[in-house]
Amino acid sequence: MYCAVKRDPFSDLKGIQEDFNRIFAGGLPLIFSGEEVLSGVWSPRVDIFEDQNSIVLEADLPGVKPEDFKLSIENFKLRLSGERKIEGEKQNENWRRVERRYGSFTRTVALPTTVNVDEVKADFKDGVLRVTLPKRDEVKPRHIEVRIGDPGKAQTN
User: Fold this and answer.
1) Cβ distance 45 to 64 under 8 Å?
2) How is 45-111 classified by DSSP, letter by letter?
């Protein structure tokens, strides 16, 4: 009997990349009862979508305070960096399971040159950072009127 399993080869590569990032950034994973206890480097998940007027990036930053992250744009690269800290009273407790990641993070997203970097806006609410990157006026879609007839002759109705 033949059974086909649909696989996404990129999901395996992403997991390997995350492991390498943790290892080489000093955040070696710890093993506790056969499960990985995550510490060190992590990366917030982002969604990026586009409409006619702008590109919008939304980043999940649960448990991160606005003063604990920084957002910047340089050479058409948006950089989000910061740190999610373990609360002071929780650091000395005996943990049974840790699934949330803590520590420093950095995300860099290359922006198209169609973005007007002088008009970027960012809002932070309920642990979600929303960055609106408006497009320059010259790249927005617009309607062009097409005249029918000889452009050198005036039309009379």
Assistant:
1) no
2) -EEEEE-SSEEEEEEE-TT--GGGEEEEEETTEEEEEEEEPPPGGGTTSPPS---S--EEEEEEEE-
Q: Which amino acid is it at 40?
A: G
- Number of Cβ within 10 Å of residue 44's Cβ equals 21
pLDDT 10s digits, 88-104? 656 566 777 777 788 89
Kindly report the pTM of this predicted structure. Answer: 0.62
Domains of the chain: 11-41 (no CATH), 42-85+100-139 (2.60.40.790)
Which pair of structure tokens corresponds to residue 23?
Answer: 């290892």
Half-sphere exposure of 56 (CA within 13 A, CB side): 10
Instruction: Enter the tokens of residue 120.
Output: 């970027």
Q: What digits encode the pLDDT tens for the residues 6-63? A: 556 665 666 666 666 655 554 444 333 333 333 446 789 999 999 989 999 999 999 8
